[in-house]
Structures are given as C-alpha cells and as structure tokens.
Amino acid sequence: MAEKVGEIDQKIESNERLKSKCKGSVQTILLGSLRTVLKHSDGLDMLLMALGTIGCVADGACMSAIMLVLANLMNGYAAATSLTPKVINTYALSLLYVAIGVGIGGFLEGFCWARTAERQTSRLRTRYLQAVLRQEVGFFDTFQGASMTSQVVTSITTGKLVIQGVLSEKIPNFMMNIAMFITAQMAALYLCWRLAIVGIPALLMLIIPGLVYGKLLSDVGEKIQEAYGVAGGIAEQALSSVRTVYSYVREEKTAESYSAALKPTLKLGFKQGLLKGMAIGSVGIGYGVWALQGWYGSILVTEKNLKGGNIFTAGVCIIYGGFALGSCLINVKHFMDANVAAAQIFEMIERVPNIDSADQQGKVMSDAKGELEFKDIDFVYPSRPESKVLQNFNLKVDACQTVGLVGGSGSGKSTVINLLERFYDPLEGEILLDGISIKTLQLKWLRSQMGLVNQEPILFATSIKENILFGKEEASEEEIVQAAKAANAHNFITQLPNGYDTQVGQLGIKMSGGQKQRISIARALLRNPKILLLDEATSSLDSQSEKGVQDALNQASIGRTTIVIAHRLSTLRDADLIAVIQSGQVVECGSHDQLVQNIHGPYSAMVQLQRAFMNDKTVSPSEAIESNKSSGRDRDVDAAETKNISTTPSNYGSKMDQETKEQYGPYLWHFIQITGSQWKSTLLGCIGALCTGLIQPMHYYCMGALLAVYFINDHDEIKSQTRKYCFAFLSFAVSVFITNVIQHYSFGVMGENLTKKVRESTFAKIMTFEIEWFDQEDNSSGALYSRLATDATMVRTLVADILALVTQAISSATLSIILGLVLAWKLALAAIAMQPLIISTFYMKAIMMRSMSKKILKAQNKSSELASEAVGNHRIISAFYSQEKVMELFAATQIGPKNESLKQSWYAGFGLFVAQFLAAANAGILFWYGGKLLYHKEIKYKNLFQTFFILVSTGRIIAETGSMNMDLLKGANALKSIFMILKRTSKMNPDKKDGINPVKISGDIELKEVDFFYPTRPKQMILTGLSFKIDAGKIVALVGQSGSGKSTIIRLIQRFYDPSKGSVEIDGFDIKFYNLRALRSHIAWVGQEPTIFAGSIHENIAYGKENVTEAEIIEASTLANAHEFISSMEEGYATYCGERGVQLSGGQKQRLALARAILKNPAILLLDEATSALDVKMENLVQDALEKTMVARTCLVVAHRLSTVQKSDKISVIDKGRVVEEGSHDELLSKGEKGAYHSLVRLQQQAILRSGVGNTAKHPFFGVQTDADKTSQGIPGTVEDHMFVPVMHNAEVHNKDSAVEVLCKLHEQCSLHRLRFSVRENVNDDPYTWFALSVANCLGDFKRLCSVVAVDEIGGSRSSRGE
C-alpha cells in the first residue's frame, strides 16, 4: 500500500512539474478565470446579471433601510410619554414598505442569477467539449496524470457544478453581502459619523486574513483536485473495462488501487478544514469592534449628548456590515474551487492545437484527383520520441489506384494512415495530395475527402442511424440504406425490433463484433470519399459477411484512391500496387504478380508463409470450386440475434432494478452507521458548532442591554454598564475564533475520511455488481464515474457544511427561545409563531425544486456519458470531422435540463421573494406588537429590544440554513444515490461464502438446454435450447456467422450473465453454486477487442496474476511473441501504453492481452477471435504459442478463420442460437454440401482462392513454364489446363497403391479427367504419386506425407525429384 501511495505522489508531482512548464499562462487564467466565465456571456446573460445585481443590491440595502427606520423607532420608543398608536403604526408601515422592496430584490436575485448560471455553464460545457475535440491526437498521447477521459468528465460534471453553484448562489450572496457592507457603512456615516470613522477602519482588518486564507485555500483546493484526478483515472478505466476486470478477478485489487490513490487527499483535506476554520473564525474581529463601539458610543452619549438610537443603529450598521464582509469570506473557498475548475476548463478552451481542426484557413481544391505521395518521411510518436516509426519513407500512389500496405505488426502501416489523416505531422519530409502539401490544405476539406474504417470499430451510444450519419450528416434515408446494404448490414438492421433506430449502447456494446464492423463500414461508404482508407476493415467478419463486404469495398474502390492495410492477403489480391513496409521503410513495391516473382523477396516470403499456414489447415477447395455454380444457402446472418420472441416479457427492461429505485428512504440510520468510525471528530465538530451557535444569542442579549444603557440618565452608570458589556464582546471575539477552528477542522477530518470511505465503499460495491447492471442506460461508465465523483463531494458538503450549520442553528435557536421566553414571553411567542411560516417557505421551495434536481442530475449523467465516449473515440471523430455531429448530440442531452432549469429559476425567484419579504416583514410585525406592549406597559424597553434581537437573530440563522436548501437537496439526492448502490444486492454474489471454492478444476463444461436473451433487449432471443459439452482438457471450437451467439456462450461460461432457462455447468456443478471469483480465477479470456489500461506494459501483463515475478512476465511475453517488440522499445516493459493502449498498434495490444492470459495459467482458456488483429507471421507464431498453452487445459475457441479451429478436438457449429452440427473437422466435412460446416469451409476456401494463395500461375509446380524451368526444378511432368487441387488431409498413404487411390478420389471429386500428364522417363509408371506429392508440397504438407510414404516403393531417383 505504501508503494502505491508513493507512486501516486510521484504522479501528482509529475503533474506539478508539467504545470510549472506553462506556469505563466496557467496563472494568468487562474487570476481571471471567473472573469473569463462572465466574458463569455451573451446579451441576455448580461441583462439577467444586471437585474440580478440590482436584486442583490436591494437585498443588501435591506438592513440599512431597516436601521434607518429603527433609529427613529428606538428614539421614539425610549420617549414613553410621546409614544402613541399612530406613531407605532407609522413605524410598522415603514418596515412593511422595506419588506416589499427587499422581496422584489430577492426575486430578481433568485431568478436572474439561477437562470444565467444554467445558461452560462451549459455554454461553458459545450465550449469545453468543443475545445477537447478540437485538439490534435498527439495532445491526448502525451497527456499525463489522470486519464484524459476522467479529466473531461470531471470538468463537465464536478467542475460545471462548482461553477454553476458559484454563479447561481455564491456570487449573488457575495454581491448581496458587499452591498450590505457598503450601504451599512453609508447609513452609519449618516446616523453617526463620529462613531463610523472609528468603527469602519477597524473592520477593514477582516480583509487581510480573508485574502491570506483565500490564497492558501486556493492552493490546497488545486492539489486536492489533482489527487482526485489520479483516482478518477483508475475508476474510469475500471468501469469502462469492467468485463476484463471481472474476468481476471481484479475487482479487489482495483479497489485497493483506487483507495491508495485517494489517500493523499486526506492530509490536504485536513489542512483545508483548518484554513477554512481560521478564515471564518477571523469574523470574530467584528465582535472586538463591538467592544470598541460600545465604549466609544458611551462617550458620545455622555459627552456629546447624541441620541442613543442613532449611535446604536450606526453601530449595528457597522457591525452588520462587518459581518456581511465576513460572510463574503465564506464564499472565498467556493470562489477558489470555481477558479481552479474554470482555470482547467479555460486552459483547454484557449489552447490552440498544433493541428487545428477548427482552422478554416488553407487551400480547397475544386476537384481532387486523389494522387498521393509520401516524400522522405521521418516520424516519431510524441509519446515515444526516442523510437522512429518511419524513416526516409517514400511512396507514391496514383489517382484511383488501390494500394495495399503489408508488413509485420508495428512496422508503421497504420502510421501511414495517421499521417495522411493529419492526426500527426511528420518530423521531416512532406505528404502531397495532387502535388500539394497537405499541410497547406484546409484540414476540414482534407478529411472530408477521406473515408476511414478502423481495425477496432468505434460506435457511439446512440442509434444505428445516427452512427452511420457520422459519415455524412446531411445524408437522406435512401443513402443510409444504400450504404448499409453495401456494407452487408441492412439485413440484420431491419430484423432488429427498432431497425435503424436501435440503440447500440456505449461503445456499441449491444452489437456483435461483426455488426459493429459493418456499421462502421457503412459509415465510411456513406461519405463517398475520394480516398478510402481501410485498416483491417474486415477483420471482425465471418467468411460469408467478409465476401459480401469485400465485394462492396472492391466496388467502392472503383474511381477512388484506396489504401488498404490487411493481414489477410485476400484483401490485397486485386490491389494495383502493394508496398511492403519493414522498420518504417518501403522495402518492396509492385503488384501481386510482380512481387511473387521475386521468390526471395519479403512479400513472396509472406505469401509462402500464408499459404503454408492457411492451407495447412484448409481443405476441400474442390467443393469451393463447385460452389461457383451455386451460391449455396443464403442464411440469415443475424436471425438469432434479432428473432422476436413473443413469449418474453416485454416489460423486463422496465422492471430491472425497480426495487432498487423505489424501496430506499432517507437512509438516516445508514448515514449514522457510515459516519460512526469518525464519531470523535464528528462529536468535536458538533461541540464547536454548538458553541458557535450559543455565542450569537448571548451577543444579541448584550446588544439589547447596551441599547438600553444609552438611555440611562446616570452617566457613571452608563460607563460602568458599558465596560461590562465591552468585556463580554471581547470574550465573544476570542471564543468565535476558537470554536470555528475546532468546528471546521474537526468536520474537515470527518468529511475527508467520510468522502474517502464513501468513494471506496461505492466503488468496491459497484465492482461486485453483475454485468447486466452495467448494461443499463443509467449505469454506463461515464455516468458512474460522474456519480462517483459528484455524489461523494455532495455527501461531504451535506456533512461538513450543512451539519455544522444545522447544529449551530439548533443551539442558537434553543438558547434564543429560552432567553426570549424569560425576558418577554408575549413578544417571544409572537416571534416564535412567525418562524414556522418562514421555515415552511424554505421547505416548500425545497420540495418544488427536488423533482427538477433529479431530472437535471439524470440528464447530466447522459451528457457525461456522451463526453466520455467522445474523448475515447477522438480519432474517429477527427477522421470524419464529426465534431459538429457530436456537439449536436451533446446539445440534445442539454434540452431536458435546460427546460427544468428554467422552471427551477422561477421557483428560486418566487421562493426568495417570499422568504426575504417575510424575514423583513417579521421585524415590522414584531415592533408593531412590541410597541403595543410597551404602550400598555406590559414590557420593558430593554426587554423589548433584547427579545427582538435575540429572536430575529434566530430567524436570520434559520434563513441562512434555508438558503442552503440547494446544497441540502443535492446532498440528500447524492446520499440517496450512494445508498442505492451500497444497499443494493448483486444478482450474482461474486464472493459467495457458501459457494464452491475449488483449489483446482478439471475443466468439464456443459451447457444444458440454455435459453438466453440480453436483459436490455428482452425481445431478442440469442440462444434457444442450446446444449453442448466440452470434456476436460479438450479443445472445442465454436464457428458460425456473425451474431449467431458464439461470444454470448463465452460470456455465459464466465457468468457475466445467467441464462433465462437451462444451466451452465463446470465439473458437473451449476456455476451458480460456485464462488464466482474463485471460479473466474481458473478461467482466462482473450477478447476480440483487447483491453489495455493506461499504465506500463509491465503493469498490463502483470494484471493477469498477483505477485508475479519478472521472469514469469518475460516468459509469458515470449510465448505470446511480444517480448521482441517490447524489448525494442527504449523503455522496454516500462513503456507507457496510453489511454486504452492508444500508443500501441492493434497487433501489439492483442499480444499483450495474450501474454496476460498466458500468465494466468488457467484451467479453462476462452479465446474470442484472439488472433484477429495479427498479421499472418505473427498469427502463425502466436497460434503455435497458443497450441502449447492449450495442452492439458480445456479450451474454447471462437474464430471466423477456420484455419484457427481445424485442429480442435471438436467443432460446434452455432446457427440461430442452437448447435446445428458437432464433430471433428473431418467428420463435419464428410457430411457434404448439406452440412453447415461444409458451407462455412466452402466460403472460406473461396476467399483463399481469391487471395492468391491458391493462384498457381507462377507456382514452381504449376503453370506455363519453360522446359529449362521444369528440368531445373525437377518437375516430373507437365500439367496443362492446370487447376489447383489440394490433397485431402489425413489421407492414408502407405505405398504406391494407396497413393494412386488418393489421386483417384481427387480425380473423381475434382474432375481430373481434364488434366493430362506428360511423364518423364525416370518416373517409372506412377505419375499420380508424383502429382500428389507436388500438390502436397504446395500445401505445406510435403513433410508430413513424406513421413508416411515409402519413397523407395514409389520409385525414381531422388536427384531427379529436385529434393
């Protein structure tokens, strides 16, 4: 744990060093960040702020106006002989007029500032996200500290809330208090200038500690935010990759890392509490000023014969003005927090990227031809400046030419596309489009000429239609459908219940890999680009889908320049030009036919390797040839995925977690439990708050007594009494400082510990929930991260601030009521009777705003989710120049909260009007009633004002407590949200105590009559009555077309979901009876889209096993063929992978994921297209490594490439959610054309034949060759009308006769009667055997056949065979 904390401290320090580099600019932003927020206001905002400011001034001037009236009232009431009912009524009406004025001011203050706050922060959120999307890709690569996604979500949620809170509440409160301070001092000068010139300068001492503490609070607040950012990055990564976290049983480890990342915030939070207590405690200087004023006031009364009412009200104005100034200091912390949040936001907004997507300058061609040229390109990635990716790279692409880029993983192929899209600029050299440097072209226009399809399909959490529209925003419905048909996506889309309006889920989680790929291809085709960029565009498709999509892509390539990156040579066979890239350079260039002629060249070697690798495992293309006559069965690719099951409850989705949303109440007892461990600091804080609350009624008691002293006729008595009260005021000054420090420091300790505990507990609890919960709309990774960041902060506010204020209010109100009843019970009862009305006003305001707050927070989660996706998919957004489209979607998420916020503004305005009016009218009513009592001699003058001051102070405290209702509402909602998580019971207890906890498992797997549908799509049955069994230690392959349910089976085995019917058993026990984490510890999973975390390579591999040694990591990396490329990097295993592994190529990421799985050494290995991202060479090596790791363990393999599965012990063909065929490769092939597996093989063979792997024109054993060629190569005969006919696998060839038998079978099946042979003299009488051996050699089977064929029995000299 200590090591983790040390690492986190280092990350924070690195952030500080990074910030110090641009310290000047950041400080400039910090100094004026809030001013900058206001500068972004429009005309309506300026009007609203102007009216709101008028309201604040009117509200602030209320005290001065009341004091001016009270000065006369006090003097008039003191002269009991001249007091009449008419005079009393006059004073009461004056106070009523003041109440009306302040009520109107309160309405303007509440409505206008709440309205403009929402408008401005919404605009700020929009501009911030725009600025983030505007940045170049290199900026994201080099971002340090917390992940970029987590910072964006934090700024858009927490940062926005902080700024909105300041604009809607803190600034108006600040301005109101400033207005109160200024008008109060002006009134004091008017009432008694002699007292004012003594008292006002003394109050200015409040400013100095406020400024000092404010600066210190700002520094601490910034450090706390940085520390939270590191922890937020951990949470965001875990939540967005929760399946990987669960699969590797790293929930507890991730929670520990998150907890360790939160630890540095504790001491900073303690320091913040101490500084806050000292800042607020400095308000005690005002009590010292009372002592000064009381003493000097007595001199003015006794020696200058000034009126006591004027002196006292002037003193009240000075002191209340001072307290108003002190209240401003309470907002200092909020201003500093907002300053920090705004500084980060505006640092991003004002950053001009090196490659600016918003820059409209540059050339625009009227008609681009598409001719491309790379000239002497040198390039390094900004995050790895020490490693050159391209070096002296040169390549020319003619217009409308199709160019294939081939090479090993990490050779620089994808970098070429990155440079062409201008994600980066080269260090040296230039890239030309039609002879013009792309740097001089307008970036928007340049990217509009290109259509990109990535290896990893990126979709957004919106509808299929909206995802396709990213390619061309103004496209018509017809164009969308046409693009989907071209991408072979239309059929499966139309079979979905909502068709093109179907929601794909976050990152397309609701779609299969093939479906996502086809949607992304449709997106690119919709654009109709001049340049088409295909980076492994068909890697996620099955053979049937690949054929259709590849044909569509080939058709789309006509008339446009196309650059294709592919590991499957089938994608490149028709390319006009193929460039072979090694070590960042083009080492060979030409057409396929030209390159294969150079048998010693790198391309030819790759072709031979792919032939040997793929054909070693591929059979019976004779049947594929036959299939040219008949396309076979056209099956519905996604029928299983989209089948509408009427018997499934349609309201299933609406019932999910309904009990979670309805059954929880206020959670007071749970709240007490969670704060129980901090009872000491909580108790100490409450004692501090209690004492602070008691000081105020005592102070007001002395104030009323001092007023009465000024009207005593005996001057010596005046001085004596005044001295006593002055000492009391001095004691209050010291006490309020001490009690505030105790209160805020104690609550700071408790609040920080509570926040840490809440975050830890919530995150740990979330990590126990079933995957189904994460699939729900409200529980996306962005929304959860937002709740985790925001809700814990709100709970802290509820505790640290509101609990303190409530405790103060209770203690103050209790003492006030007791004193009031003792001094003047009739007036006290009248005052107390008014309080429920005031309290109910604030309560009604809170009730009206509660429902809207929920809607706003929910809508904010949606926008946070979209922002998270947008940042994570920044490259694809940049490639399609879809920033505006994303912003439109983002704006759509803001419509709901904007409407609710408008209502909230009206309620805030009316609520504040009533509250302020009643508070001011309360004084008029009490003085009217008190005057009546005084007139009838039922109350003493002294007791009248003592009771009034004491009970009005109680009303003011209650009003202040009511003004916190927004924070109270947010805190209550946050607390409810937290406890909804903490008290929720997972449907799959991952740590079932009474569950089976196996030390070792055999690996028997059986699915019995399984029905399954995804909970978010209850009408779509994925599996129907599926049953199959895997024996321990066996290798079973699942094949089938995209969307048939293969990956779903893997998810069920890991118990990501439970079947709706049937059971999944391991070692004879239903997996529901196992301890889930114990079970998953014996299972390793490698998915089609590898999950790489934002850490080092070492950390990513070590994720597979706890307490792993360096040697084990290297061994696993070597087996996964990753060690070589890792070692070639300057930092080796310490190399930073980037967020979601963005610094690595697709093949490198896949190999790291494989190394992680190998390191786990599981009993059950689940491979879901585990080698789809690798080139042929790497796939061959990794496949060999996997075959070694498969020994003595149960393996389930899902693959579209049949070459990957043919050595399996059993192959299960999945179609429409059922197992339609099972058996070994040979058994399934023997079923002939009617077999499902046979059809899949046939489709794959057609792809192989198209790829050129089976192109025999230039093969040394086939084709038109010279006699010299034949002699030199030792060819035994000439084959005319040549056809490529692979030998059957597992053929029993023991002697000459059996070899002839094999050839006879081939003759019968492949119409070999068209083949004629000319036999050399030295080949005796067995041409068929030689032909078989020749074919076998082509297939890579020569060595295997030779091991079973007795060469001496066949005849012929070895020298003549070219051995």
Automatic annotation (TrEMBL):
Pfam families in the cross-refs: ABC_membrane, ABC_tran
Disordered, as annotated region: 618-657
Segments traversing the membrane: 47-71, 91-114, 197-214, 273-291, 311-332, 683-712, 727-747, 828-848, 906-929
Superkingdom in the source lineage: Eukaryota
Keywords: ATP-binding, Glycoprotein, Membrane, Nucleotide-binding, Repeat, Transmembrane, Transmembrane helix, Transport
Keyword Cytoplasm annotated: no
Annotated GO CC locations: membrane
Feature: compositional bias, Polar residues: 618-630, 643-653
Cited Gene3D superfamilies: ABC transporter type 1, transmembrane domain (1.20.1560.10), P-loop containing nucleotide triphosphate hydrolases (3.40.50.300)
SUPFAM superfamilies: ABC transporter transmembrane region, P-loop containing nucleoside triphosphate hydrolases
Family in the record: Belongs to the ABC transporter superfamily. ABCB family. Multidrug resistance exporter (TC 3.A.1.201) subfamily.
Protein name: Multidrug resistance protein
